[in-house]
Design a protein that fits this description.
This protein is α/β, with parallel strands linked by helices and 367 residues long. It is built from eleven helices and eleven strands. Helix content is 38%, strand content 13%.
Length: 367
């Protein structure tokens, strides 16, 4: 169980002796540090909702997949010397990364940041532009606190980061502990969590979720329950149901890369052929389609499209209750459990049988 003994109450302190200065491997405009003093970490990474007197930002980074036998690690801080233009920690990292670690475009690279403050709007745009031009880089950002999270421009900056593929999360106890072990001159002492760390973490998570809803493109409850309804006829008022596609990208290990708008209806023949062409030109990508309904399933060309997808190892699966719940939890702006409609399992079983008959008939005709 997490100890409730608070960490030391002290000022910001300095960086560790002998490790304060520029990266010895490459000169960058910002300040590079190998490790932090304990009191520096406790002061600057305190995850209180309102943090006064913390004008600096510390960026602890870890780069995996750069070609070296062990991950590259270090810390950048904001430069605030008199008569010198202010240079943020994120800018320092980007300058160091692009000059010190030029990577081949085909080599995947995992970058993890532990930030005392989330990026400002300007740095968020710079990082997003960097990710747009470095598609092989996966960036995960853990932040202790959100910087001016009520201001529209800073909220938009975080949304821009997520839209560019970055994964932004609040630092939990496990991230603080890892940061303590990897980036703090701890002298063998264990991490001592401060009072209300878990409560403050929940506050940061809630604020971050409120900000990122727009970037994740979440559906409204009414829209999902109407558009993804698998009944033949939906309750009144009878409105036109339109196609929606929710997508989720993941690495081979299953860790998510990005998510956004499962299909509420199966692809038309034209889209099916485009998917086949796309899958043929991206052999390293595995596609899987979950659909709540079959689109014009009685027409031969629509049936043929479904068969060609399955024949090309692009499985088309009818959504059942587990898939609806997953879609609800992941893609809907909601705060309650999935409200399953009447006869959902029966409708799903009927559509599954219909799809199985279509695939069986076309497989026999293809012999």
């Amino acid at each position: 169980m997490e100890s409730r003994r608070p960490g030391p109450r002290a000022g910001p302190g300095q960086a560790c002796p002998g490790h304060y200065g520029r990266n010895p491997q490459h000169s960058v405009p910002g300040k590079w540090i190998r490790r932090l003093y304990q009191k520096t970490f406790y002061f600057h990474f305190l995850n209180v909702p309102r943090a006064f007197g913390r004008r600096n930002t510390f960026l602890c980074y870890q780069v995996e997949g750069s070609g070296s036998s062990s991950p590259d690690k270090g810390i950048f801080m904001k430069q605030m010397w008199p008569r010198t233009p202010e240079y943020h920690a994120e800018q320092s990292f980007l300058s160091w990364f692009e000059n010190r670690l030029p990577l081949p475009a085909q080599r995947p690279c995992q970058v993890t940041w532990y930030l005392s403050w989330s990026p400002c709007s300007h740095c968020a745009e710079l990082v997003a532009a960097f990710l747009d031009t470095h598609r092989n880089v996966n960036l995960t950002i853990y932040t202790a606190r959100l910087y001016y999270h009520l201001h529209p421009e800073y909220r938009a900056g975080l949304c821009r980061l997520v839209s560019a593929g970055a994964q932004v999360e609040a630092m939990s106890f496990s991230e603080f502990e890892k940061c303590w072990e990897e980036f703090v001159y701890n002298e063998g002492n264990p991490f001592r969590p401060w009072r209300m760390l878990r409560r403050n973490y929940r506050v940061q998570v809630k604020n971050l979720q409120d900000i990122l809803r727009g970037a994740m493109g979440l559906l409204e409850e009414e829209t999902f329950c109407f558009q993804f309804n698998n009944q033949r006829r939906v309750p009144k008022p009878h409105r036109r149901r339109r196609p929606y596609l929710c997508y989720q990208l993941a690495t081979p290990t299953g860790s998510p890369l990005h998510r956004g708008y499962l299909c509420n209806q199966s692809p038309c023949p034209l889209c099916a052929r485009k998917l086949l062409d796309f899958a043929g030109s991206h052999c390293n990508l595995r596609l899987q389609i979950f659909t709540s309904r079959l689109y014009f399933h009685w027409l031969r060309n629509f049936q043929q499209g479904l068969y060609l997808l399955c024949k090309a190892h692009i499985p088309v699966t009818v959504m059942g209750l587990p898939e609806f719940r997953h879609c609800w939890k992941t893609f809907v702006d909601q705060a309650k459990p999935f409200p399953a409609w009447r006869k959902l399992p029966e409708c799903s079983a009927s559509i599954k049988e219909r799809l199985a008959r279509i695939l069986k008939v076309w497989s026999l005709s293809d012999l």
